[in-house]
Amino acid sequence: MGVCMSNTSGLLETKKSGPHALNPRGEHPAIARTNVGVPCVSLLTQETIHYVFNPDLVDKEQCCFGYSEVPETVRRGHCPSMFANGEEHRRKKAFLMDVLKECKNRVPSLLLKTILGHFEEWSLLKSVPDFEDRVYYIISEALTEAVFGTKLDGRLALTWLNGMIQLKTWIPMPAYKKKHNLAMEALPKLLQSIGESPKYEELTRLCRQHSLQAEDGMVTLMYAVLFNGCGAVTTAIVTSVARLQTILAFEKKDLQTTTQQVISEFGNMTEESLGEMRELESFLLEVLRMHPPVFDFWAVAKKDFTVSAGKVKEEVRQGEQLLGSCFWAQRDVSAFLNPGLFRCRRFLDDEEKKNHLVFSHGRFLEAASLDNHQCPGMGIAFILMKATLAVLLCYCSWDLQDMPVWSDMTSRLGKPDQLVCFTWFHFHSAEARRALGL
Ligand code: HEM
């Protein structure tokens, strides 16, 4: 079961093969000892991945994802909620959950307003080569306006995001270093905009209520919104647009018709009407099953324990790194028939299947809480993803530059290998405004 490899060769293999490095012979092990840049015990099935979610057994390593890290220079030494443990995590998560709860009902209308403005602008362009970045601008403008009362500069936010993660290696990485320097320069500008935002006083009051220093709270919130939130949502939208290209024509037509029916019935896009778009939801869940934006969940054993899967057992020692592979757990044949096949209606035909999704750092149907690291932004994420895709499906036309192909490169976060670009884009703006009562 053990694979002897140095950190450097392990890292290079992981960079080359992504999650396939964990399953090189296609044997689908439940547990594997390997080296992906650091030695780790990887957990690859529905049965074993849950050990990585158990705070009684594991802790988060401060600001590290196994072989990579978020250096203190891009977070002013503060520790975002997803890397915090125990009491610090509880305080930070409680603060974030309060903020997200307060702003959620503003998200649909702010998003639609932002989408209309951007799509009208895209329509005037000859082509949209930077489609991926432009989705990030839409999502971050809408979400930052909901949270801070003013939109933060999307380009600055993306510069910060793109330079945040650094590899732990001696190999010189000039491209990473350059992005890191740009991210460091973006950070004070973003914090300044937040300091001048209409909601700043209210947010710092909330920080005090949760015993957080203002800057600690703001960096934590910025990370949650721009990294956890906008990063993952943008990726899922881009992957969905690529997937729309690969499904059968009648399946795409069905998605369009059923979404259009809901819009006609409600005449708007609110949490309620979005909740009725069940075909679109099943399509999205299938995108997130096959192409989760976060492939790997990392943790460190805080005591010795045994991981078991049927007859297979592995002793884990305190201090060892664990890697829960969301990518493989969501391709586990014990839960999903033909897991390598993209099936739009998989979650419509069988609702129970949702229990086996773990892309939110735990069971999809289990709520986020102060005692777990599960994503507290799922409600908002589905509003953002469904509303954007509904407008794209019902009121836009485009052509992709390349037929999407997936070799599951970790750096692409679930998106196809090549950048997703439009050779042309048209937005039926008047029709959209009429249908949505805008
Ligand atoms: C499809 C979209 C999304 C996916 C797939 C996703 C997934 C995840 C995952 C896997 C984690 C755990 C990361 C880890 O601990 O290693 C996480 C945490 C988190 N997410 Fe999301 N997320 C999404 C959208 C959002 C949105 C829209 C927000 C905010 C509005 C958000 C806020 C957070 C926060 C604050 C955490 C940290 C939780 C904690 O500290 O316990 N996420 N998310």
UniProtKB/TrEMBL annotation:
Positions with biased composition (Polar residues): 1-11
Cofactor(s) essential for the protein: heme
Residues annotated for heme binding in this entry: C375
Domain of life: Eukaryota
SUPFAM superfamilies to which the protein is assigned, alphabetical: Cytochrome P450
Alphabetized UniProt keyword annotations: Heme, Iron, Metal-binding, Oxidoreductase
Annotated EC: 1.14.19.41
Region (Disordered), start-end ranges: 1-28
Signal peptide: none
GO BP terms in the entry: retinoic acid catabolic process; sterol metabolic process
Protein's UniProt keywords contain Oxidoreductase: yes
Molecular-function annotations in GO: C-22 sterol desaturase (NADPH) activity; heme binding; iron ion binding; monooxygenase activity
Family label: Belongs to the cytochrome P450 family.
Protein name: sterol 22-desaturase
Organism per entry: Branchiostoma belcheri (Amphioxus)
Lineage of the species this protein comes from: Eukaryota, Metazoa, Chordata, Cephalochordata, Leptocardii
Gene (UniProt): LOC109487576
